[in-house]
Write a structure and sequence with these properties.
Layout lengths: L1 E9 L5 E9 L3 H9 L8 H11 L11 H6 L2 H15 L4 E3 L7 H12 L6 E5 L4 H11 L4 E3 L16 E5 H7 L3 H4 L4 E5 L10 H7 L6 E4 L13
Helix pairs in contact: 4-5, 7-9
Length: 232
């Protein structure tokens, strides 16, 4: 998502020239620099609040969990859930990089479950080989319906209105980010095994960036495999 800031500067003839600055949330450090330099006129009220909140943050607030997750989740998984919720509410993105076996999927489902009544559309993008695993985990830990958007006869528009979660593959994403997937407004998009998009100039990475999404969550146990450019 993007933030815009409007301001004005005085010209030599005494007139004011209006200007608008546009910032991506991924450029949050630039917002902080403007905030630190007390150039408040360049920031919106929302931007100032975010800078103040993060600058004075002592700990991530805790959010409620359903009884089911509260009983089975480990403490670090609960902290991961709180962290995801905090980033979501502040309109930032997240990259959850716990090692394999530490419950990235579980923390994601805790996050989705807690927000389910507040959102309309959730997309999970995963390699074909683990789509069935996602369906199994959703059915095991929740009672939330899920639509597998893969294979012949797949559909998004005609699915049950109560089914907010759709799961698809990276291959389908690359083929349909301008069509069915691109036409949807997604509240949350989850990219599992995000290292599949480590080449920032690839079609898959381009497709991921161009989805209409309010919040993106990247999951990977290997955020950097060869060089730091992959993390970007």
């Amino acid at each position: 998502s993007y933030l815009t800031a409007e301001g004005s500067k005085e010209e030599s003839d005494g007139t004011d020239e209006k200007y608008t600055l546009k910032f991506s949330r991924s450029r949050i450090f630039e917002l902080f620099e403007i905030y630190r330099l007390n150039l408040g006129d360049l920031l919106t009220t929302e931007e100032k609040e975010i800078c103040e909140k993060l600058s004075n943050l002592e700990e991530v607030p805790e959010y409620s969990l359903s009884d089911n997750f509260g009983k089975i989740a480990r403490d670090y998984q609960k902290r991961g859930h709180h962290w995801l919720r905090f980033l979501y509410e502040n309109k930032l993105g997240a990259c959850l990089s716990d090692e394999m076996g530490l419950g990235k999927t579980l923390q994601t489902l805790m996050f989705i479950d807690g927000l389910y009544d507040e959102v309309k559309n959730i997309l999970i993008v995963a390699p074909v080989s683990i789509i069935s695993n996602w369906v199994s985990e959703i059915n095991h830990f929740t009672d939330l319906p899920v639509n597998v958007y893969y294979g012949e006869g797949r559909t998004l528009k005609d699915k049950d209105e109560n089914t907010k979660i759709s799961i698809t593959s990276y291959g389908v994403l690359k083929r349909e980010f301008h069509d069915a997937l691109g036409e949807m407004e997604w509240d949350i998009v989850v990219f599992d095994e995000i290292q599949k998009l480590k080449n920032a100039s690839s079609l898959g990475a381009h497709a991921a960036r161009n989805l209409n999404s309010k919040f993106r969550l990247a999951l990977t146990g290997t955020p950097v495999e060869n060089h730091f450019g992959e993390f970007h």
